[in-house]
Structures are given as structure tokens and as C-alpha cells.
Amino acid sequence: MQKSARVMLATIVVLLLVTICIWYAVLQGAHGKLKVSFLNIGQGDSIFIQSPTGAQVLIDGGPNRGVLRELSKVMPWFDRSIDLIIPTHPDADHVTGLIDVLARYQVSYVIQSSVLGDTDVWRTLEKSIESEGSTNLTAMRGQVVDLGGGAYLEILFPDRLLPNVETNTASVVARLVYGDTSFMLTGDSPSEIEQYLVKLDAADLHVDVLKAGHHGSKNSSSLLYLGFVNPSVAVYSRGCDNKYGHPNPETISRMAQLSIPTLDTCKDGTVTFVSDGKTVSRR
User: Fold this and answer.
1) What is 149-177 written as a DSSP string?
2) Which of 7, 15, 68, 168 is most buried, by CB atoms within 10 Å?
3) In sequence order, which residues have a C-beta less than 8 Å from that of residue 49 and are 6 or more positions away?
4) What is the reported pTM?
5) How far apart are CA 4 and CA 153, in angstroms?
């Protein structure tokens, strides 16, 4: 084959691959829908959000680099950027994987709690964020992140700077809203913070999907809070046979008492929901 023919063939192949990539992105896009995936990353949290316009958010990154494997299942293989990551608090089961995410993906923005971590993992993450050059913001109640297409992420807590409190207490709590549908994303917030949110937002806490606080710990998902949130379904993000016994029998009992169906990343794998702004369905 002559050189000119080989060049033409190579050009055609490249153009074909580019076309395939573009159409793949279009076909995999939200098409006016919001997609939320609770990733199966073991004992920890990691939530991937794709807005109706394709904006991408990763809340927490789990306990290890396994988050990269799970992201590859919910993102196009050629996509190497994430618009926003939110480390809810410094605990290793929430942020360790974010170090690998920052190494693999271009991250534009970081929103994190003001609580100070004191571990090597947290210090490494902070250095990774600095090296990435991402715009770094402190999470504060009242912030609203416009994700496009009418979807937005609203920070409910913290409502003040909390540099030296217990890390779970300072977890970022966010409500994701699209049209008439919503998701409550709670980090590891304990019942004291849940009850505080009830005092602040009692009339506005109802959501379609609740990420059960602290992987189903008995110290989260209090009965009062569950009653006001009143989700159609709750999701436990946790590892199988974890040493903490999550979800705790008390939490399971409270969910049953209020007839709240639950899903579990241990048993169900990655749990994905899709919202068209009117209803939420499991994908």
C-alpha cells in the first residue's frame, strides 16, 4: 500500500473514531435527565452525578483506588475530566480514592468541609488538590451549585467554619434537586446534625432518595430525621462483612418502622437512579 493511501486510511480511521466518540457521548448523555450513581467501592462512600447537561460531580472517593474502576463503568472511557469533587470530610473511607481521581482526571473545582484532617491520607489529598490547580472552595450552608439544565446542588451543612470538631460532625450535607425530584446526600453526619437540620429545614427535607448517613450506623438515620426526609428509598453505601456491622440492626429497624425500602451497594452493587425532573427510577 502506498504511503499516501496509508495516510488516507489512517485519517479515515481517526475521523471514524472521533465520530464514534462523539456519538457515544451523545448516546450516553443524560438527554435532559439527571443520573446519580452510588458506587460500589466497598466500605466507604462515593457518589457520581451527571447533570442533564453533562456536568459531572464526584462526592467522596471511597477507601482506595477502586473508585477508578467504578468510574470507568459510569463515564465514557475517553472522558478524563470531572467538573467538581466534594470530599465531605477527611476520613480515609471517603477521601483516599480521590487522590487517584485527581491523578487520573482533570478536576476543575473542589468544595470541601472546613474541618481539618490530621492523617497522612488527608495531607496527601490536600497536596494533590493544590498540585491540580483546582479552584478550592469551603463548603458553607446556602451555597448553590448550578449543574445545568435546571439541576442544582444545595449545601445544607456546615453552616459555619468547623476546623476542629469531630470529622463526622463536620460532614458536608447536600441536597441535589432536579425539577420535582431530589436526593439527600449526608456524608457521615450523626443524629445531632440531622436533628439540627430538622430545626432549620423541617418543611424542605423530603426527598426521593436518601443516602443513609454513615453507612447505616446506629448513630445516624434517626427516627425524627427519617420522618421528615421521608424518602421513597434509602441507600446503604458500605462494604460486605465490614468490621463496624453496618448497617446496624437499629437503623434497619427504623427504616422498616417507617416502611422505607432500602438498597445496599454490598448486595446490589453500584446503585444508579435516573430522574427526568418528574420521577426517579432505578437504572
Assistant:
1) TTEEEEEEE--S--TTS-TGGG--EEEEE
2) 168
3) 34, 35, 36, 37, 56, 57, 58, 59, 147, 153, 176
4) 0.90
5) 53
Would you mind telling me the total number of residues written for the chain in this entry?
Answer: 283
CA-based nearest residue to 173, from 150, 143, 135, 203: 143
Count the Cβ atoms, other than its own, within 10 Å of residue 246.
21
* Dihedral pair phi/psi, residue 93, rounded to 5°: -75, -5
Grid cell of 86 as nine digits: 466534594
Residue that is written with C-alpha cell 418528574 in the block: 278
Distances (CA, A) of 51 to 79, 84, 205, 264: 15, 12, 21, 23
pLDDT at 32: 87
What angle do helix axes 66-74 and 92-104 make, rounded to 10 degrees?
60
Give the number of other CB atoms < 10 A from CB of residue 24: 14
CATH architecture of residue range(s) 31-282? 4-Layer Sandwich (3.60)
- As a whole number of angstroms, the distance between CA 81 and CA 43 comes to 25
Q: Give the torsion sign (CA, 65, 136, 198, 275).
A: negative
Answer for the pair 77, 97: CB distance below 8 angstroms, yes or no. Answer: no
Dihedral angle at the C-alpha atoms of 48, 52, 53, 55, nearest 10 degrees?
Answer: -20
**Segments making up each domain of the chain, as ranges:** 1-30, 31-282
List pLDDT tens digits, range 5-19: 554 554 554 444 544
What does the pLDDT read at residue 131?
Answer: 96
Contact of 65 with 262, CB cutoff 8 Å: no
**Is the Cβ–Cβ distance between 209 and 273 less than 8 Å?**
yes
Q: Give residues with Cβ within 8 angstroms of 16, minimum separation 6.
A: none
The DSSP bridge pattern shows strands 144-148 and 151-157 to be antiparallel
